[in-house]
Predict the 3D structure of the following.
Amino acid sequence: MGLFNNLFKKKEETTASTINQQNNTKHFTSENDFLEKFGALALEKQRNLYTVTGGLSWNVDMNKEEITFGDDLTFPMQVLGSFSHSSETWLWIWDNKAGGYAESVMKQALLLKQYGEENNIDILSVGQFDAVENDLHIIGMMAVEMFNASGYYLGNYGQGTMVVTLKSDIVDQSESEELSRILTVFPELISTFEIRNHKNAFTNYLSQKGYEWTSNGNEVKAVKNTAIINAVFNENNLLTKLNGNS
């Protein structure tokens, strides 16, 4: 907690630059911009998380700032906020006046608030607002990518759902066959979220996965070692066909 304590002692000097210090390359200016640049990577991490924790019970210890799955999978966590099932509103943890939570468990949420204020991103800077389930996923994905977390978890506790991020080498090292993962994750991304330019999102994902790709009109071909991926987009840059082989 020493780094966090130091951060808040010098909040005016350090808060604005902390996100860039943690990740110099990840910058976005809107929800769509985030999804096109980093959405597929964030969703891929969720699949890794599910591989490790899927089907297990969960419990959080706010004092220890840990989340446990099953009997013995315990990971450090950060709490972002919660969604009320009755009012269908999202409440950031830093705006939860009745919670009495320690600042150390909300350091990511506070930094995202600062980032949202600097870049006019309401979903990060407005303390409470009407929300739908996808908003919870977008908030979790943004935090995961900005802070290089292993994933986010939506914990349903009856009256609401809390959103936390976690860090785990077990999750990070969860392996899958890369080609099939790409061919599964990207269609899931564009079917779950409204993304304006599928082609931009897909080529960003390919580059992040180390593929060399070329574009010929509405077609994209990507190659990495023996793996080949072909994608076709319509005149609005929306995906119409995707296949691959190795």
Notes: The two ends are 46 Å apart (CA to CA). Residues 1-18 have pLDDT under 50 and may be disordered. The longest helix spans residues 31-53.
